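Hi everyone, sorry if this is the wrong subforum. Our group has a chain we'd like a structural model of before ordering constructs, and none of us has done structure prediction before. Sequence below.
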Amino acid sequence: MSVTMQFDQDLDTVWARLQDPDFRVERSLALGELSADCEIEDFGDSLTVAMEREVTRELPSVLAKVFNPKQTLNFQEEWQADGDGWSGTMQITIKGQPVVISAEMALQPQGDGCEYRVSHRCKAKIPLVGGKVEKFVLSQTDDGAVAELDYLKKALA
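Answer:
Right subforum, don't worry. Here is the predicted structure as tokens:
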């Protein structure tokens, strides 16, 4: 599944906000997460992001039997300069759960603004309900990405 968001601001303005760990924590808390920590290392032509976020999710009844609604998510992002923009990968693990979410991301100039794209994949190693878990997790992940990008768009306005 994938999410795309257009920004009126130029790439450098959007990128500056995305590489601000305080902004990322503020955004997570503003979107209702219980806690968030973020560390970012900038190497010039590459960037790494490590986040730990504690969330509460409403789970469908079949998944509520398998998962705790309160979960700790660990995010690892690796970004590289890519032409005039940036491209990256992300891996999200859910502490104590056999679920891994991976993603490919890009932030590229477009006209006077820029475009952010993220495409998520999920693998849940759970017998019988793995497919349902993957579908639910991808839905939640895409919805979360839209909320985060909407928040960024409003913060830049």
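For your construct planning: The first strand starts at residue 2 and ends at 7. DSSP finds four helices and seven strands in the chain.
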